[in-house]
Amino acid sequence: MPLARMLRIPALFCAFAVLACELIARPYATMGICDDGPYILIAQKMAATGHIFYNGNTTPFLGWQLYLGAAFIKLFGFSYTTVRMSTLLVAIMLAFVLQRTLVRAGITERNATIGTLAMVLSPLYLLLSATFMTDISGLFGIVVCIYGCLRALQASTDRSTILWLCFAVAANAVCGSSRQIDWLGVLVIVPSALWLLRSRRRVLLIGTAATLAGAAFIVGCMFWFLHQPYNVHEPLIPDTFLPLHAVWELIYSVLDSALLLLPLVALFLAEVRRTRVLTLAIIAVCFLGYIFVAIHPSHLRSAFPLEPIPEEIGEWVNVHAIYQFLLIKGEPPVFLHTGAQIVLTVLSFGGLLGLLASFLRPRLTPPSVDASARTSWGQLAVLLLPFAAAYTLLLVPRAATTGIHDRYLLGLLIVALLFLVRYYQERIQPHLPAASVLLIAVVAVYSVTVVHNFFAFYRARVALASELRAAGIPDTSVNNGWEYNFVVELQHSPYINDSRIVLPAHAYVRVPPLPASTCPMRWYSYTPHIHPLYGASFDPDACYGPAPFAPVHYSRWPYAAPGTLYVVNYLPTASFLDSR
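Given the sequence above, the corresponding structure tokens read:
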């Protein structure tokens, strides 16, 4: 045990668990995934020139992950997978630091390891770890900042406290530069730590100076960012604000968070049966009523969704096991059928009810932990709750307009994870039960399957484009979904034609609509160089029916029947012949 503690074996196990799952899933594809295609091309150009050139699809700052991606290109040569592996490296390091952060927050080694695995082996984490999206890189900055602040609170000397505070500021300022919201570490978490240390004058003065320096760094970065050509300015307060929509989005986010931390939340389901018989009967009736409304066809169905919640919230983790917002014709095959959704809904919602019921139980004697790593509940609340409140407040404008995507919840999931695990070990029982390990194993298998199917689908889209290219059809004549189209557009233009671009002035060009005879193509204005004659579709009869090209099949674990993509005509036959 002393050797294992010295080598941080549990934290290393969490890190290598992420790597092992990704290797099994084989996450590679030579096309953009969600927003990361343009980001990868920025990293490629940076590796060639040493400068950052935005390309019209960049609301995040990108920051340090561009330098890391460019370094990987320099070392291993350019490919989409090479650049994405830089994010996987960060995800592996993040798993290690997260386990150590939970330990520093007063959680036992075993419980911290189980809690970390519940987070890093979730489908959301593993999917994002295999992309060049900004979520994992930004989350790393938040977790390192929390770790640094916890070490500062537990340091025995002023010198050590100051050094850890400076480390927290520097780490969050640099590593949080991927996504602007992750700079809340410098702006909220470190000031919260300074409030807890306010009685130590020297620490307060130097820590405040370091925080102001970090804030100045952030202001300088934002000033530079706002003056770069072809980036996208997203206002903090949107023009249209729908309060009721925001409320529902926030409620759905809470419910979806329970699914994303299922191996821990489901443990509280046992607390429901310890309630009074009448209360238990009422809960059972409410559950059955909810399930009935959720599966019965009616206008109420969308307000009472089964897990995984569809639409904006279930963007990455959903019933199809592929990215939800594809804009490809037809309906993708369902991976999680209604029975599985009901089970997930009961475990998620039931776990939340059990958590509420556990508040009525008497407190247990806390398990023994290392005194040097002991942090009180009051300190944790002061350190993390202001951050959670500020983070949630910044999500409200999104909730009132486009919606809160599940990946936006990662910062809040870290706070929920920490409080859930520590609360369980002090109020329920000292050790997380063996059932949690079993649940993590089941979720890990599901996550690996989802990541495999996810990338198999993207490889099928690449194969479909290659088939058409071999037949003499250029990529500009194919609608292969907006992610593929964005990269094609950037091969013919220096930027995506986004109306939110401010610099240079008049960069956005109004695009005339497609001819009325053309099959509708959403987001056509973003890629004016693409004039579709063909398109990818899950339905062979979409638009003007099947084109004379072979369909492309892709693997769908554990189903024997593969998924299939078809090529469909975007013009009627006569118009098509005229266009050729």
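The chain has 20 helices and four strands. Try to locate this feature in the token string yourself.
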